[in-house]
């Protein structure tokens, strides 16, 4: 870690590196951190002031591009590049939408920003709006996050009173305001075009792309959709500079990021680490390691293919490229640890049931394949009625769905199923052959 | 049972509430007010009746069928009244690994209702939910809009006892996770149990 090659300081990719400092997540959990007073006392809205008073919109976009920040909602598209897709202003309305519909199982980072640090998000939106000449913003918060909704609405009102939102923000020519919209329990709203339909008061079916949102989004106007964490990251990119952000991470993944961990570990929760830190560092040094023997982990939310609990995967850096190279994705950075005693078929059925429930019904492969075939095949296996050829059939159905659906939801279900078959086929076969799972523990509830 | 007057329009005497909701959206987006209007009705009446669908349709300028089409798309709008304490239990993987399935069985036994039902008194209703974003503090129950996290057997017992007395206990808000930095991340509030009977934070 300390080897320095020819004057270029090595990238920070461990939280043990003394140069690393937690930034975004520093105030989450602190009493009173959700108030404007607290936020300002800790340097809040200085980044917004900096862009509004000393930078051009193009400079802001360039700074975010140079930082290497990639979208934190799961897809990892470079944020600055996304911002640059917005067409030149023509005097009409232009929108920014913050995607706070966090619904991916295993992900729970954005929730705490909404509850404990909503001003950081508002500041990020002001910066993004200025950079893209946007006139109005929406925050789409999933319906269940009622506490976060109340806190965010209150924070927006505080910001308005203080002249940080509304007409002529900070006495500049820039005007911008935000509305908060509550979802009502639909995972598909995390897909950006489905989210826009939901925001427009329609059923949340995804839209065909192109046109992309930057060309025709909300009400047909130029629109950009960003994840909560992408926007809070932008605050610090501006505050500390693109070079600071890019000094952390790996070749293709820069900056600091929120990782989440759940399942049987000693200290589950959200942790901020530099990108490129290893799963081992995260799981053992921060989350305290598993509380029982583990056999697999899901690396970045339920849509990302799992890995067996082996050194070669635990020592993998948590960045976009390393995960992709190993056949998975970084996703939202939500790790789920799966203990040895959990029947893997049962674990996957839980996720398949989730996607079946959330399939929007628009296209046939997802509606019939994910919505009906898959859950029924799992039910048959788990009921002890399976036959050995059912495992092949499951594989066959999966490969026929993959890549053939209208939006990414179906693949988000299929890829984890395929990964479980790849690594734990023996458990499927055992179940199909014996009519009972290889691992049968079922009492997980603590007294 | 719940008896509501659904003949008088809901917004008849709430013009200010209606105006505020409509004012949240740009002029070109009047239909965007649909979901918040549905929320407004449901928060007060615990479901959305046909009459309310017609009323909202007229406000937004669409048909009642379209309103129902939207409403039925989402899991958390109800077309039948739910209980005064609408309990949602997260059933997705992280919660399942922390015992959500057994907790569900326990609730069924305790409340005498299954997923989707409301009890005869209209006090409790039970709904299995998909991931509610509380994976690090699993398992979790929502009572109306309030999260109760890390619900052990004994916490679940105390929670139900309290609700039977019509008391909504203060949630024991826990964050888990990060605890670094100068002024940082003591969990919000203490990890206070419902009755003070047992401990909290791992």
Q: How would you summarize the topology of this molecule?
A:
The complex is a heterodimer of chains A (447) and B (202).
Chain A: H1 36-41, H2 46-54, H3 57-67, H4 79-84, E1 95-100, H5 109-116, H6 118-131, E2 136-141, H7 146-161, E3 177-182, H8 192-199, E4 223-227, H9 228-240, H10 242-246, E5 249-250, E6 253-254, E7 256-262, E8 269-274, H11 279-286, E9 294-298, E10 307-308, H12 311-314, H13 320-325, E11 334-339, H14 344-358, H15 364-382, H16 388-401, H17 409-434
Parallel strand pairs in A: 1-2, 1-4, 2-3, 7-11
Antiparallel strand pairs in A: 5-6, 7-8, 9-10, 9-11
Chain B: H1 15-23, H2 34-45, H3 50-60, H4 64-71, E1 85-90, H5 93-96, H6 100-111, E2 124-129, E3 141-143, E4 146-148, H7 153-164
Parallel strand pairs in B: 1-2
Antiparallel strand pairs in B: 1-3, 3-4
Essential attributes:
heterodimer, A: 447 residues, alpha/beta, Rossmann fold, Ubiquitin-like (UB roll), de novo design (two linked rop proteins), 3 domains, 4-stranded parallel β-sheet, 11 strands, 12% strand, globular, B: 202 residues, alpha+beta, Arc Repressor Mutant, subunit A, Glutaredoxin, 2 domains, 4-stranded mixed β-sheet, 7 helices, disordered C terminus
Structure in words:
The complex is a heterodimer of chains A (447) and B (202). In chain A, the strands form 3 sheets. A 5-stranded mixed β-sheet of chain A has the order 8-7-11-9-10, with helices on both faces. Chain A has 447 residues and is an alpha/beta fold. Chain A starts with 35 loop residues before the first helix and ends in a 13-residue tail after the last helix. Chain A has helices at residues 36-41, 46-54, 57-67, 79-84, 109-116, 118-131, 146-161, 192-199, 228-240, 242-246, 279-286, 311-314, 320-325, 344-358, 364-382, 388-401, 409-434, and strands at 95-100, 136-141, 177-182, 223-227, 249-250, 253-254, 256-262, 269-274, 294-298, 307-308, 334-339. In chain A, helix 14 runs antiparallel to helix 17 (409-434). Chain A folds into 3 domains: 36-246, 3-Layer(aba) Sandwich (Rossmann fold), CATH 3.40.50; 249-339, Roll (Ubiquitin-like (UB roll)); 344-434, NADH-ubiquinone oxidoreductase 51kDa subunit, iron-sulphur binding domain (de novo design (two linked rop proteins), Up-down Bundle), CATH 1.20.1440.230. Chain A has 17 helices and 11 strands. Chain B is an alpha+beta fold and 202 residues long. Chain B has 2 domains: 10-71, NADH-quinone oxidoreductase subunit E (Arc Repressor Mutant, subunit A); 83-202, Glutaredoxin. A 4-stranded mixed β-sheet of chain B has the order 2-1-3-4, covered by helices on one side. In chain B, a hairpin with a 2-residue loop joins strand 3 (141-143) and strand 4 (146-148). Chain B is globular. Chain B starts with 14 loop residues before the first helix and ends in a 38-residue tail after the last helix. Classes of the chains: A alpha/beta (447), B alpha+beta (202).
